[in-house]
Specification:
The chain is 41% helix and 21% strand. It has helices at residues 14-33, 47-54, 59-64, 83-92, 95-98, 137-153, 170-184, 193-201, 204-208, 212-217, 230-245, 290-293, 308-316, 337-350, 364-373, 384-389, 407-417, 420-424; strands at 37-38, 44-46, 66-69, 75-78, 102-111, 123-132, 160-166, 251-252, 264-272, 280-286, 301-307, 328-332, 355-357, 378-382, 391-396, 402-406. The protein has an eight-stranded mixed β-sheet. Bound molecules: adenosine-5'-triphosphate and magnesium ion.
């Protein structure tokens, strides 16, 4: 019996992985230009890291984590997100001691045991940025500019909407939680089972619940935005005006709370109409208290994570697969021809010319068919006579013309013709 992959896990096949490379390449360059440096973190962490940072009463910690005891009896968890690990790494490696400011990015898989559906997997991938050390609104605006430019560079900015909100400070939140609890108490029976409990422990989560009953019940709830303190209100006004000046379009969504507990002040989501129910393609915000929560000094911070699968879905629409087509296909017949073909292919590749070939002793006709199927522009024919004289017959497959040239010269001739990729530029 064939062993199959686990539910919610995927193989990314070559046609699709080209899109992944494209996105990752653009992202790495945008991050670099904005002064972010790469952080590579372990996939497995002590469970306590996530419980303490993400929060006990969240979907992720309550029901989505892959947690198990390792051989030594330690409870370990496959990371469900990157921020907690980034903060741990920032502290554990003493980055805060040399300079309290750091801008880091990461790319990699995350694991959450959710119900699999389009755009929702159990192993998915995120690109994330974390910015430590700046409490000022300028840092919030700059991070949002980065996020916007990332989508803009990929040609996706016309298909996303940026929504922002503020969650205020700890004091604002405590006061709001009371107001919200008072509002939700009378309609507790209309809420889903989880949310009935959350009214007591963490009523903010009710606003974030995906159940339509919970959404309806909380539709008229007071908003956090209406009750934030003066300082938090000013911070938000400043973020907004900076975004206006940068011409980054956004909408204020006073109902947005995020699914993790550590956020404060500015929070945001990047939504796309192309993704159906899973409409969030990136999300993030400030988490000024998290470094302290995880045992460090008070270092303000903020960040975001973008879902790669959802970016790939967006980019794949109307974007035909662009598999590399060889510019040249080597056709070889007779003694020593295979040897000559391998050598010539290597010379061509080293000169930056895409070249492919077949390794078998197949007929001339069969190899020419392969050349056509591969979409080659030239067939480079090595028969016994050509090999003996150090030549190769170059057949232009579009024009049907053919000329014989020295093997040594063919790489430079074809390099000058240009590969399909370099012609586009
Ligand atoms: P959602 O509301 O879709 O569950 P979330 O609030 O749980 O998202 P975050 O934890 O903020 O998401 O993660 C940021 C981004 O990571 C999301 O916007 C999404 O693009 C992606 N993402 C999150 N969970 C998944 C998943 N299970 N499968 C694929 N992508 C995901
Ligand atoms: Mg989620």
């Amino acid at each position: 019996m064939l062993i199959k992959k686990l539910k919610g896990f995927r193989d990314i096949l070559p046609e699709e992985s080209a899109l992944w490379r494209q996105i990752e390449g653009v992202a790495v360059e945008v991050f670099r230009r904005y002064g972010y440096r790469e952080l590579r973190m372990p996939l497995l962490e002590e469970t306590g890291l996530f419980r303490r940072s993400i929060g006990e009463q969240t979907d992720i910690v309550e029901k989505e984590m892959y947690t198990f005891l390792d051989g030594g009896g330690t409870s370990v968890t496959l990371r469900p997100e990157g921020t907690a690990s980034a903060v741990r790494a920032f502290l554990e490696n003493g980055l805060h001691r040399t300079d309290s400011k750091a801008r880091l990015y990461y790319v990699g898989p995350m694991f959450r045991r959710e119900r699999p559906q389009k755009g929702r997997l159990r192993q998915f991938h995120q690109l994330g940025a974390e910015c430590f050390g700046w409490p000022e609104a300028g840092a919030d605006a700059d991070l949002l500019c980065l996020l916007w430019d990332l989508f803009d560079t990929l040609g996706l900015s016309t298909r996303v909407q940026l929504q922002i909100n503020t969650l205020g400070c700890r004091g604002d939140r405590a006061a709001y939680v009371e107001r919200l609890r008072a509002y939700l108490e009378p309609c507790r029976d209309e809420l889903c089972e989880n949310c009935r409990r959350r009214v007591d422990h963490n009523p903010l989560r009710v606003l974030d619940c995906k159940s339509t009953h919970c959404q309806e019940a909380s539709a008229g709830a007071p908003t956090l935005l209406a009750g934030v303190c003066g300082d938090c209100g000013d911070h938000f006004v400043q973020v907004r005006s900076l975004l206006d000046r940068q011409q980054v379009p956004y909408q204020v969504n006073p109902r947005m709370v995020r699914g993790l507990d550590y956020y404060n002040r500015t929070t945001f989501e990047l939504l796309s109409g192309d993704l159906g129910a899973q409409n969030a393609v990136a999300a993030g915000g400030r988490y000024d208290g998290l470094v302290e929560t995880l045992g460090g000094p008070a270092v303000p911070a903020l960040g975001f994570a973008a879902g790669l699968e959802r970016m790939v879905l967006m980019l794949a629409e109307g974007n035909a697969a662009t598999a590399a087509t060889p510019l040249a296909f080597l056709v070889h017949r007779g003694e020593h021809a295979l040897e000559a073909a391998l050598l010539l292919r290597r010379q061509l590749i080293r000169a930056g010319v895409e070249a492919d070939m077949d390794y078998g002793e197949r007929s001339f006709k069969a190899q020419m068919r392969s050349a056509n199927r591969a979409g080659a522009r030239y067939a480079l024919i090595l028969g016994e006579e050509e090999v003996a004289q150090g030549n190769v017959a170059v057949k232009n497959l579009d024009a049907g013309t053919q000329e014989t040239v020295a093997q040594d010269g063919v790489a430079s001739i074809l390099a000058a013709t240009g590969s399909p990729a370099s012609e586009e530029e």
